[in-house]
Task: structure prediction
Amino acid sequence: MSKFKKALFCGIAPLLMAGMLSVTSQAVASGERLYGRFTQDNELYTPRNYREWVFIGSSVTPNDMNDGAAAFPEFHNVYIDPGSFEYWKKTGEFRNNTVIVKELVSVRGKESPSGNGYFPGEFNGIAAMVKSEKRYPDRPGNWAYFGFPEGARHGAIQEDSACSACHQEHAAQDQVFTQGYPVLRAAKP
Ligand code: HEC
Result:
């Protein structure tokens, strides 16, 4: 590191740390921990620890029940960030900054010692939706929808016609298919 860069770094590092501290303490003060990290263009960095979030439900749309051409032929395992689940338990609403991840899991087969059905195989990618007044003021309901190209560091915001339109028309509450998530319904006050 050149002397100049070192000086710059030493000057900036404490400021950055102070900034991080103030964000953390704000979050603690209001009792709200926020999840998801974003690029400057408000695109969600590929979430990593969502399997430790709150699992709210799963559905499967196998190819053989969809003329061999399901849009997503996998299981869809859905997780909500823990801070938003806490808020949901108090209010029955999706808070500003809600992050929901849908993970796709392939169908491994249709027979198991337990009987016939559809059984999960391998992880096969994710999709996500994020609600934010600040980041997505012009999106319906302030929800942005993300696809994650394989290996990408962050998601790509999708056109409203590609994702939001169907969610707006068919989902039971605020663009989320709560009709398919007994965990959410059971926790609703
Ligand atoms: C034709 C309708 C339709 C379209 C288009 C659609 N979805 Fe969905 N989506 C659903 C349904 C129905 C569910 C409920 C669970 C399931 O069946 O997978 C869902 C669930 C989800 C969930 C879990 C939270 C929730 O709202 O239930 C996410 C995240 C999601 N979709 C993201 C996307 C993204 C990103 C796109 C665009 C690339 C997209 N969806 C396009 C119908 C759609």
Summary: The two ends are 56 Å apart (CA to CA). The helical segments are 3-29, 82-91, 164-170, 182-187. The pocket of heme C is lined by residues 59, 76, 78, 100, 102, 127-129, 145-147, 158, 162-163, 166-167, 171, 176-177, 180 (CB under 6 Å). The chain is about 25% helix and 25% strand.
